[in-house]
Structure formats: C-alpha cells, structure tokens
Design a protein that fits this description.
single chain, 252 residues, alpha/beta, six-stranded mixed sheet, four-stranded mixed sheet, 46% helix, 17% strand
Amino acid sequence: HLLYRVEEGVGHIMINREPQRNAITPEALALFHEYLDEAEKDEKVRALLITGKGDKAFCTGAQLSAGVTTGSRDIFASYADLLNRIVSFPKPTVARVKGYCLAGGMGFMLACDIVIASDDSKFGTPEVNVGLWPMMIGALIFRNVLQKKAMEMILLGERLSAQEALAMGLITRVVSAADLDGEVKKVLALLTTKSPIGMKMGKQAFYTAANLPLKEALHFLSEKIKEVAGTEDAREGITAFMEKRPPNFSGK
C-alpha cells in the first residue's frame, strides 16, 4: 500500500493505491510510521518526498470501507499521530501533488514544509458531504489559512483549483503538469545541499516558537541561534562563503 526508496539523498514515500485514487488504509498508516522512522535514521537521507502513484490523485483520504466509522478510534489516533510525525519530522519535507488531494490527503500535504502542485490538481475537504468533519486536518488548515476562508472551504465541501489553493496559502508552488517533476527535482536537489543539522534545529525551533508569545519567542530563538552558530556546519558554511566555494556540510 506504500512504497519507499532512497534516491540522490531523498527518501521517497509513495502511496501505492492508484486504482483507489490512493485512499489510505490502516496498513498504509502503519507503513507510513515505519518509513518515517527509517528515513529519519538514515544519514544519507537529507530530504523527504511524499507523493501518490499515478496522475489522478495524490491522496483522497481514508478508504471509507476500511472502517472509518465510530468504531475506528485506533485509525483516527494513528492518523493524528502521523500528521504530527510529519510536521515535526527533523528533515525538510516536500509534497508532490498531481490530481485530487482531498480529505485526509489534505492533511498529509499540509503537514509538509513545501507543497508543489500541478495546475490541474484539485483540493478540498468533502467530509461534510457524507456527514463527517475534517477534525484532525482542521488543526493544520487553521494554521495555514485565514479562518473565514478555511470555514468556507470546510462548510461547502467544494473542490478548489490549484490556483485557489495557492491564493489561500494551502500550497507553496503551482506549475504545469509537464513541469511538475522537474520542479520537484529542482527543489529537492537544493534541499540536499543545505546543512542537515541547521535545518533540523531550525525546524524544531520555529515550530516551538510558533506557540509562544512574541517576547518569549524572540528570547527562545535568540538562544537557539547560538546553538546553530556553534555547529561544525555553521563554521563550514561561513568559511565556504568567505572562500567563495560551495560548502561541504557534514550534518554536525
């Protein structure tokens, strides 16, 4: 249900259920956790890509026939844990979106740091149409989108174009379908050249600071920059800048 490989410093996680428009099953959720652990431990992995098999869908959420009812609390908890795991993943994460990105798929996409979508992709939270509500996904939606626009999307359950999703702040880039893989590859290649320790410390610091009052956040971040500046990678980066050469980051 899920495929994983490492290529050119990037861990690739692909939802492999194309005939079902990459709907998520309990088996896929378990594999997701397993592959994230593997990617985090692997020093060769500098960035993580999440995508779906084929051109029709990135992910259309949970497979309704897979137990998404009042008796599926374990599935809901596993999905919530997975979203938190992706958000807090210590390496940069990129979502490649082609086709439909709906319901739980929106959660996977929003949990990533960078989202690159083809211009023919469609987004939305259709849960209201079947008597449900995008509960866990909402925690991420409201951290990315203004409340009024978020509520309109959730209440109407309509599909949004890629340009509408971009304007709302749901995604970061929109390119033509023909240029999607090239753009994703370019972004991932850039990410693999950055300092692993710098990005790890920076991501953790930013997500922590987001929940602090301004004064506390500034004080917290002023301490964190000292820690980042004390790494070998920071010294290497500054030296390389002065010597006008590409840095050779070791992740220390």
